[in-house]
Amino acid sequence: MDDLYTLVNKVPSKKDFIDTTDFDQVEILDIIKTARVVRDYLKSGGVLDTLYHKNLAMLFEQKSTRTRVSFEVAMSELGGHALNLAPGAIQLGAHETIEDTAQVLGRMCDMIMARVDRHASVEALAKYADVPVLNGMSDYNHPTQEIGDMITILDHLPEGKKYNDIKVVFVGDCTQVCASLMMITTKMGMNFVHYGPENKWLSEDYQKIGRENIKKYGGSVTVTDNREVLKGADFIYTDVWYGLYDKETPKEVYMKDFYPTYQVNDDLMNATENPNCKFMHCLPANRNEEVTDSVMDGKNSICFDQAENRLTAQRGLVLHFGHAAQATLDYIKQKEGK
Ligand code: CP
Q1: 20, 41, 145, 227: least surrounded by Cβ within 10 Å?
Q2: How far apart are CA 19 and CA 117, in angstroms?
């Protein structure tokens, strides 16, 4: 049986967590393993302080509920501290460059997490800071969301199915969350579908990453506007139809692209022909636009488990990139007398 307390990669193979494409399947599974063991231990009343006196700087160029709260709570639960460096609160963008900010934060803090407008900014932080940098979402991807989503999918794996039997269908716009879901599901050898209008399909560059994953791990990538593809889905996932990067788009423009065909409603869920098909959403949601209340609040919705697993994931990530994952698992194993 798989040893829950032993990691293959006892230290991270890369300093930073910018893109899951930088890591192989085994290392991603190490992070997920740590996250799930720590979740169970804390839920059973265990206490941890393996990040005692460690500080995480959290840089936000945009608003956040889940990413901000989950990282702050994870650091606090593990004995460390998180600094919320919200827009307008520090010199970044006004009097100081990202490169200089990276060097300063790297000298005062043990890790940096950043949500940025442009992906190049998080890459610059990683280049100029001597400490690990974690990508809390850019216009290219959302890798910390990927870890939480994969934990949620594994928590709700249909009975009797293995990873490579799973079909995950993303419905709607090719947001960075859609791209990220494609990256992590194909890394796990699952079957990924993007079902959306042709002018909103995942780009060829993203699809190429999926195809590279399939070569190594199995699974498939399909991008289509054919509704037949919904049949047999195990998970339906959607995201808002307009995001942080195109919020000035008039509502009637995006409604024309997506409504009513790509709204996740009871008809769309029934089209899966799978009464156990689960509904996922990274949140926040525009209720009754991309998803109806009946689906979001329905019995097959796991979107709030998914939100909770952002915290599960962040614990695994700060421990792994804070070089404390194996020590934490050793400690839990000893406390549990195993
Ligand atoms: N899903 C997600 O990243 O949520 P926040 O924008 O609230 O962090």
Answers
A1: 227
A2: 16
